[in-house]
Design goal:
By secondary structure, this protein is an alpha/beta fold. About 30% of the residues lie in helices and about 20% in strands.
Length: about 350
């Protein structure tokens, strides 16, 4: 590490009360800081226990581990919010820039891995929102050792970057009830009244291992209600942002001109014929082009899970298959655009 490099501090553990909080400090100010504020000499590769002081005030008695470069040290603090806040404020006053971590990719400074592939695995761990995503990501070094990944395989990228799935359709076809089945909870308000959903509702849903941002939108219909009309207009922007559209239609009624228009408009959507349990004989439907569901009971929802995962290449979670998920392997083996691949 360069002597002219800025000194930085970052909290490696999640914020909030905890048994232990780990603060990593980096840069040329590390040793001067420890000499001024830590009661005992820090040793490379050793866990040293002592008081950490701000003047005459003892902030904590952490365990400090100094790395081999002598410009990186980990302060293993007691995890109370006051302790962490006080130590970070002391570091700020001593010239350390505070690196704010997010739930996104970890900063390079937070990872102690030399191997490039393991580095990419480790920095992307916060993006794994499901057990399956975590297992597939951690299996990549071994999978890459067995073979070359397909640069067109976007499945792991989608596992780490939840796609947006919009549920659209006419009013009163059961969109919100179907959404609740996918959410696996009562998230959307449902009633047998057109226009019940007056705004788009977005929330993460775990579809058997694939996390998706599921967006339930108001029913598309002509209405004199100004609030509902505005909600329908606003939801259009959410639909345009979606990586995949689930078009829900009513199987219990003849196909309407409005439904045909939506089928033409969203020709690459997953078509779902809901209310199949009350479908009348002889009613004209394009059932060969869609799935059959009964949202009130959950019938057919498992098949919808499978189809959504299939659109993103996640119908199976084979941990032995090498996959691309960062710019580095994509640049090495190709550079496909993973966005909107589910629409094809």
């Amino acid at each position: 590490m360069n002597d002219d490099a800025p000194s930085r501090a970052l909290l490696l553990t999640p914020p909030g009360a905890a048994a232990i909080a780990v603060v990593r400090i980096l840069g040329p100010r590390v040793l001067p800081f420890l000499e001024a504020h830590f009661a005992r000499p820090a040793k490379v590769g050793h866990a040293v226990h002592g008081d950490l002081c701000d003047g005459l005030r003892v902030l904590d008695d952490p365990v400090v581990v100094l790395h081999s470069t002598r410009q990186i040290a980990d302060l293993n603090l007691h995890g109370g919010p006051w302790v962490v806040t006080s130590v970070m404020e002391l570091l700020r006053r001593e010239g350390f820039g505070i690196v704010e971590l997010s739930d996104d990719v970890l900063a390079d400074e937070a990872v102690d891995v030399d191997d490039a592939l393991w580095h990419d695995v480790t920095t992307h761990l916060p993006l794994a929102r499901t057990e399956q995503a975590l297992r597939v990501l951690l299996a990549q070094p071994a999978a890459w050792a067995r073979g070359r990944p397909d640069p067109d395989d976007a499945s792991l990228w989608w596992l780490l970057h939840p796609p947006r799935v919009a549920i659209v359709g006419p009013a009163n076809v059961g969109k919100s009830t179907l959404a609740n089945q996918l959410f696996a909870q009562e998230r959307s308000i449902t009633a047998d009244v057109p226009g019940t959903t007056r705004d788009w509702v977005g929330e993460m849903a775990n579809l058997d291992g694939l996390a998706v941002m599921l967006v339930d939108t108001p029913g598309v219909r002509e209405t004199s209600d100004a609030i509902e009309r505005e909600a329908i207009a606003l939801s259009g922007a959410e639909v345009k942002r979606a990586d995949l559209i689930v078009l829900v239609l009513d199987a219990s009624e003849p196909i309407t001109a409005e439904e045909r228009q939506l089928m033409n408009l969203y020709s690459e959507a997953i078509v779902v014929w809901n209310k199949w349990d009350v479908a009348a004989d002889g009613v004209e439907r394009a059932t060969d082009s869609g799935l059959r569901t009964v949202a009130t009971t959950g019938e057919g929802v498992d098949r919808l899970h499978v189809e959504i995962r299939r659109r993103f290449g996640c119908e199976t979670f084979d941990e032995t298959r090498p996959r691309c998920w960062t710019e580095r392997p994509r640049e090495r083996f190709g550079h496909p655009d993973h966005r909107n691949r589910a629409m094809s």
